[in-house]
């Protein structure tokens, strides 16, 4: 199930892809790193800002993530997934770590208030490609059941653990785990992610 | 699939894992599961790509000063080497030398163990699955849990020098340790060990130049599944972690041949 004209975060023909650039970065190539930066800084900053909501903190965390990409480039293994997803995993985890440490000690209302932020696309998209990507994402998210959508977006955009999601949605843990998995299966197929 | 995992199928965690919606203990357990479930690993790959797309669609141009800062900063940051085999060959040398210096432990099956240990070294599968680059940045996750265990686990995983080693039993059980010499601790996880009768137990051992000490018993968790992760403190000069079957309640020194030998990275 592949979409025809999907804007994919992948390489163009004839230009070194992110995977190849990362290999060069792993050997200490700063020029290659600058090109990696051009490709990943926007997505990294975007996802971190989504999870953290605070621009100053997000800038700091995104910066750490990019330095981590430089530092850990040799740890990227192409056999385990795309370079973009490797970078995004680092970015998302670091944002989630920050949000969980920040929320410790705050009360439940404050945490619940964060739920209002789970709509994934209220910022203005800056490029045509990003706009198309968001439209597609929205369409795919609309194809989920409500519980699937909430489970996936609370976790990914809200930085909540599945235990917290279960608590927030007042459903059993096992249900949340299943909905996250089912939701991702549907999203994967809808977005045409290669398997 | 492995029916022995019974009541708690870790497979269902694949979605939560890919969304970073798990705590450190879950993560460790699930990664352990991934290593022996190719199907799950493939599913997780697809999910991780999917999650990345959820994030990628939110791309926003960061403030231009960020680029300057990052480029300035990498000038002072040393890059990590790739995750490859740990320096295994050094271990037998080092331990042989240190063994020469110490009194042999009062341990009757010693002569059975040591040859097996060296032979086992080649079989130890090394660190392949340590997602260090990723795991090592979870330093902030400590406060999200009230469980002391989780905090210690997180601290070990987040240590800059954390390394993982794995081994498996002939019957298909698996063990993994994530070791931080700087923290003087390791996290030990096992899965798929054959169930034991009530009269016996699995026991974990530290094995080093100054002898062998117990690091505790491995008990099945409350629902009879794999034992929860164990934090072993004070690893000192421990070179190897071993698992044996002992009479219920455990022994002061091992009385049987180890099923699992984890050779730890050197300090």
UniProtKB/TrEMBL annotation, chain A:
PANTHER family: ECF RNA POLYMERASE SIGMA FACTOR SIGK (PTHR43133:SF66), RNA POLYMERASE ECF-TYPE SIGMA FACTO (PTHR43133). InterPro entries: RNA_pol_sigma-70-like, RNA_pol_sigma-70_dom, RNA_pol_sigma70_r2, RNA_pol_sigma70_r4_t2, RNA_pol_sigma_r2, RNA_pol_sigma_r3/r4-like, WH-like_DNA-bd_sf. One of its GO terms (biological process) is DNA-templated transcription initiation. It comes from Planobispora siamensis. This is RNA polymerase sigma factor SigK. It holds the Pfam family Sigma70_r4_2. It comes from the Bacteria. GO terms for molecular function: DNA binding; sigma factor activity. Residues 37-103 form the RNA polymerase sigma-70 region domain. Keywords: Sigma factor, Transcription, Transcription regulation. Belongs to the sigma-70 factor family. ECF subfamily. Residues 134-186 form the RNA polymerase sigma factor 70 region 4 type domain.
From TrEMBL, chain B:
Signal peptide: none annotated. This is Regulator of SigK. The keyword Transcription applies. Residues 11-52 form the Anti-sigma-K factor RskA N-terminal domain. It comes from Planobispora siamensis. Keywords: Cell membrane, Membrane, Transcription, Transcription regulation, Transmembrane, Transmembrane helix. Its main location: membrane. The keyword Cell membrane applies. One of its GO terms (biological process) is regulation of translation. It is a single-pass membrane protein. GO terms for cellular component: plasma membrane. It is found in: Cell membrane; Membrane. Residues 124-258 form the Anti-sigma K factor RskA C-terminal domain.
